[in-house]
Each structure stands twice: as structure tokens, then as C-alpha cells.
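Many introductory courses stop at the sequence. We go one step further.
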Amino acid sequence: MVQSRAYCASNSAPIEWKFKDAFTLQLESHKYGVLYVARNKDEFLYNFYVRVRGRQRMPTATAPYAFVIPANGGDNHDVIDLINNLDYLQHIEVFQATAPFSLDGRNFNAGDYVVDLNQPYGMWPSRC
């Protein structure tokens, strides 16, 4: 025997949702989320500290240690967009090589971008 599930009581009238109702519900959920973080700020701050501390130690123990993004690696607009996204939106420090260098038999040009993973938000690019 299969029973059907009802998401509202059978004796209640159907509810007509409007944009204002959805907006109010979203606003209330944000308000309660901010209120929860404000009440538990010490715990959130400590958890953030522990997470960042663990990420800072991780790059020194395991490879990769950095990412190299070629400056002329295809569509220049995509490269600039990626660098701006990492640097300005995600707060990841991106360095530009001032001279050509080689690493593990691979040669890189001056002007290539280097993302060092030994920084507070450095592990974010390796997780993407």
C-alpha cells in the first residue's frame, strides 16, 4: 500500500506566494544567520584561526608549493580575469616574475604569475 505525502494540511487553504514573501523569508534567514554568528563570534573566530593555521602549515609539508600561470597562456583576457579574481576577490597574493627562471626542467618567462601557496588563503587555488 502506497501512501501519498501532503506538504500542507488538507484543511488549510492553498498559499499564494509572491515575490515579497520570498524576499522577506530570505531577509529573515540572513538576519538570523548574522545574529547566530554575532552570538558565537568567539567560536567562529577560533575555528577560522585553526583552519588558516592548518592551511599555512600544509604547503610546506606537501607539494605543490606554488602555481605558475603563464602571462601569455592563451587568451590574455582570461589570464587577467583569473589574476584579478585571485588577487582582488579571493585575497590571494599573486606575484609576477621579474626574471626568467627554471624549475624541475621547465623554463618560465619573466612576467609569468606565481601563486605561492604558503599564505593564509594559499590553499584555495589547489582545492578548485
